[in-house]
Here is the input.
Amino acid sequence: MIELAGIEKRFGDNVVLKGIDVTIAEGSVTALVGPSGGGKSTLLRCINLLEVPERGRLVIGTESITFEPGRRPTSENVQKLRRQTGMVFQNFQLFPHQTAIQNVMEGLVTVLKWPKDKARLRAMELLEKVGMAEKAEAWPSTLSGGQQQRVAIARALAPSPRVLLCDEPTSALDPELSEEVVDVLSRLAQEGTTMVMATHDLRLASRVAGQVLFLDGGTIAESGAPSAIFGAPQKERTKRFIASLG
Ligand code: ADP
Ligand code: MG
Here is the structure.
């Protein structure tokens, strides 16, 4: 349902993604692991087209786009693909001047032009799903990191994206706060939400992911089930990395 083929991305002379091929089934969870600078965030940003690759092909559901050097995709095509995705960031990035529910409604009202009462109902449903309904009227600054991230997840899911992209969703959180976010992501996974997440959190990856991709130096060095990648990595590089995470 999501396909990346031959995705290449460079920043100046730095080739950050060197021809990435990935297939992601509907309802599956894929974890991107690997050393800092390996290209995890860039890969996520290429899926939602915050970065435009130089080469390759991206398919999300019925929408697709082909990248070639020197040819910018049309903004219409970019918008269509981007709307298939929702993104959750390490630092939550809630709008500080909006309450929790306003954050979740924002895209529905301003981008999708939903009437406010309909957007409010949808937002409330999502806040319930992430266990944040009682905090609907709270300001982000009054919420814990874990609570803010749960609101951010609700916001990302509001327009019903085909895939939820998460970039280190628990990295800014203490273990206890991280746990409540892992619980929410795990529940979403059980409900069949398609997700791709970059994470250093092996517990998160083992609990929710069906496939793990070990990304190193812009290539997928190794891939497989979490038990295989974390329990019995094949390559020296992967072994060292997993060992370093303790
Ligand atoms: P990871 O998320 O695995 O730590 P990143 O995708 O953030 O890796 O980074 C991969 C490489 O791309 C790094 O060398 C980083 O310096 C470079 N990079 C990422 N974003 C940019 C950017 N906007 N401009 C220039 N270089 C970038
Ligand atoms: Mg990153």
